Amino acid sequence: VDGAGSQTMPSSPTQPPSLAQHLRGYLLKRGGTLKAWKQRWFVFVEEKNALDYFRTPRDVMPLGQVCLNHASFTCEGVEPGIFHLHTPERTITLKVTHTDTPRTVSHYLCVSQLLNATKTKSSHSFLGLWSCQDLVAILQKALQQCQSEKQSCRLNQQNYNQTEEDQDLTTHLEQTQVQLEELKNSLNQKDQVIQDLKKEVRELSEKNHVKQQVIQKLSSCISRWTEQSSDVDSQSVQTLIKQNQDLQDDLKAFKNQNYFLNSEIHHLSGLWRTSTEGQRVLMNKASVQRGQHLRLLRELQEVSLREGAQSQSLRRILQDALNQANRSELTLHKLEQYILQDWDQYGFPLVQDFEVEDIQLLAKIHSPDLRTQQNQDAIERPLVARWEQYMSSCRGDLSDSPELKSLIRTGIPPHLRPQVWNWIIRTRTQRDQDPLQYQQVLSQSRSGPWSRQIDLDLPRTLCTNHNFSSPSSPALQQLRRILMAFSWENPSIGYCQGLNRIAALLLLVLGSEEDTFWGLKAVVENIMPPDYYTPSLVGSQVDQLVLKDFLSEKLARLSSHLDRCGVDVSSFTFSWFLVVFVEVLPSHILLPLWDAFLYEGNKVLFRFSLAMFKLKEPEILQLSTGLELHQYFRILPKTVLDQRRLSAVAFDELNPFSRRAVRSRRALHLERLQRELCELQRQRNLFLSQRSIHKSTEEEEGAEGAAEEEVLDNNSEDDFATVSCI
């Protein structure tokens, strides 16, 4: 066996090769604890008549040695190529590698001859056996067997190739059948399409025939009309044309006349407004001087004078002066009532009404003159021009942009305000998705649980407004339908006092019931925080706490002054926020505030409240008693008359004023307030349970106790909201 595991036969029988040179190669040896096959390199050592085995051919020291003296060889394994060497000491199982090749047989025979040679313990006799006829016969037999195996393998290969060819043909036949089916289906579909096209061609032919008939009839009609019109007298046609031209000339003349009349009316209105404002200013100054004059007369009257004719005469003169001052006061009051009969285009009074005590308080703190809105034509003209330019550039299709935000903060012109408000409301409520919702709700809300409260609040809605001053005003009936529809649409809110004023202002600006309904939904459901108008008024209370935080942060001096005087601003600002300043601010300030409120949201209320406090901080710091502060806060919004200055403070001087800061403070106070309300509800339930137990023990007061319990249960929600608000 050579180094590759193969046999090298001797060149001639008379000169056998050395066993040490040829009897070497790899054999598999079974051994170890697991009796696994391990490949070892075997070398026949002629001097020792033994087999040495190594791990690799390069190893120097053998792993072991098998002595062939007195060794026997058997081949009893089921698997070919396995033989056993039996020595007196042990039995070694070996396996020839690559038993599937003809070379393995030669390996096997060489080892067999080697073992047979070892039985005689003669190397030369072993070499004699190498060249005997038996070996040749065995080799010939092995060669014949290999040839037969080769023939059988060739036949098997041919059969295999024939089988593969049959399978390919079968697969190709199946694919051809599938393609045939697909072609048949495609042919059927195309036939169907052809039938449909033929049908459409027939229909189009029929339509074309009908159209041809219609064209023929129209042509005949036109020909008849042409014949008839040719019979008309040309003189009458000329007369009609001349009359038409005369009417057009008259229309142009009336338009020009209307334009000049409007300009004159506008000029006269400005002059009249200026004179009215001047009269109002003079009245206010006269009121202040009259108060000072009366105070001086009373001080002189209280001075002790000497007894005598001189003293009596002086007292009589002072008394006559006081009587004359009282008569003058009544005359001024009547004149003031006459001046107040002036309204703006929305029905609000142009001149604010002040009580005598309010005027005296303002005179005490040296408040500026109580002018209402001045003639701001010079200021509003550039604003109107900017709005007209913007609307023409966007072609009426508004979209959110910094330019639109800046314009809205400066105020929307009255003739564009309904259009812009409707766009904001549609954007917030997605009104176009259900345009018939208001009509459906209105048909279902003829009566409801809130109708009684709504009827009670309607006469108290915008009493100073000209459109709502009469109980039989159509605006009140429209407002009632809007509030009934809203309370039916929002059962969780129903109706809350304050919604009537919000809806009334929307109705004055928008003019339509449906637009007002959607505007009210936008304010309550989208702009204001949740639970703002629910019975508990949690959202409104939280906003008052947030306002106090901002007041102490941005106006620290004013906040500390109010704390020292024991004045809580939420007792006034609560109603400001609840009604969104309706009937709180003058109309020329209220409407620009609402422009920004609808577009930017609830944060605008904080801005304008703090702006009013900042503008009036010097006057507030002059008041040192709680009574004077309460009286001044009651009229404070009416004293803010410069809308431009107020907007500048609200949007410029109070920055930064981020929406995130408002949300974070609101969430903090909401969590704390909810805990307090839960604790208050728990104490209330405990009180009611104890009261019911106590009353159950008093049998003689059972009827009276039951009546009181029923009254308490009916008013539980109102009591709870009132206590929470406090």
From TrEMBL:
Keyword vocabulary terms for this entry: Coiled coil
Coiled coil keyword on record: yes
Record-linked Pfam families: RabGAP-TBC
Biased composition (Acidic residues): 698-720
Coiled-coil regions listed: 173-264
Keyword hit for Transmembrane: no
Rab-GAP TBC domain segment(s): 411-601
Top-rank lineage group of the source organism: Eukaryota
Gene Ontology molecular function: any one: GTPase activator activity
Span list, region Disordered: 695-726
Residues in PH domain copies: 20-55
Official protein name in the record: TBC1 domain family, member 2
Species, as recorded: Periophthalmus magnuspinnatus
Lineage: Eukaryota, Metazoa, Chordata, Craniata, Vertebrata
